[in-house]
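Researcher: Can you fold this with xanthosine-5'-monophosphate in place?
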Amino acid sequence: MITEITAQELNTDRFIEEKVREIQAGVGDGMTINALSGGVDSSTVTMLGHRALGNRLKTVFIDNGIMREGEPEQVVGFFGKLGVTVEVVDARKEFFAALKGITDPEVKREAITQTFYKDVFGKIVRESGAKCLLQGTILTDVDETVAGIKRQHNVFEQLGIDPQQAFGYRIIEPLIQLRKDSVRKVGKALGLPADLFDRIPFPGPALAARVIGEVTPERIDIVRKATAIVEHLLKDTGAFQYMAILHEDRVTGMRDGKREFGCQIEVRCWNSVDARTASPTRLSFDLLEELARKITDNIPGVVSVTYNVASKPPSTLEAV
Ligand code: XMP
């Protein structure tokens, strides 16, 4: 049973002090690794880990091919300014090979988990001689996995999986008592710029969580372009999270007077505090029309754009 620390209860300075001590005691001598995706949780854990371990923490960014546009360069740039060196590991081939032919959401999530922890990370850990992986699992990830709603990519112990046995290394999770609002506070206190601690959440399975049906480089490319447009146009809404989803079904459209049997993009924009429940943001119709226009004008093959108006529950935030 994990004891939650709510945002109201959280004393960031005391939390940071305590976690720094726990990380130092937990990892002992030698190297530790952490995987940075550039999201709020992994960015916060990176700063916490560097405060605790200095250059005994090796930070890697796994380029899995399913990240947002320009993400590897952006993350390396942000952390370079904070004095943290980030090594980029190109694992695009491994991930696309693992995702080939898979359409079931949970099988897709499991393929990403196995590729990440067993193949790609297992190799990095073995080669570096590290014994531990430091990662930013938060309480919401655990809740939904244990409830059997969605297998979050980073939850093991609570499912009875021992990472030492399964992958050959230990996993340390200093943020596991927190939810997103608290993580942002800790990230801010650790000196992360607002561009990082205030970023909208982004899931571990990345854009693969937003492709319904098979994940291929071509389909990721469509959802990546749509994501860039949606994030750009909705950044000032103050919404908790917004995203583009590529549907599996095609629909009849027309372009330049010719029939085009094209793709459908669904836009979601959520009001939420901690992702446990959420409701759709009441975007103006002008903004919705602008989204549709930009998406259909700039992404070849997309002929339909819809906006989700269901709440969580029964929806979830991500589509996969
Ligand atoms: P759902 O879709 O379950 O999402 O309503 C709740 C929040 O969690 C994020 N999410 C994930 N985050 N690993 C993560 O680190 C995952 O596997 C994962 N799946 C969903 C989602 O973006 C939302 O903020």
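Model: Folded with xanthosine-5'-monophosphate in place. The radius of gyration is 20 Å.
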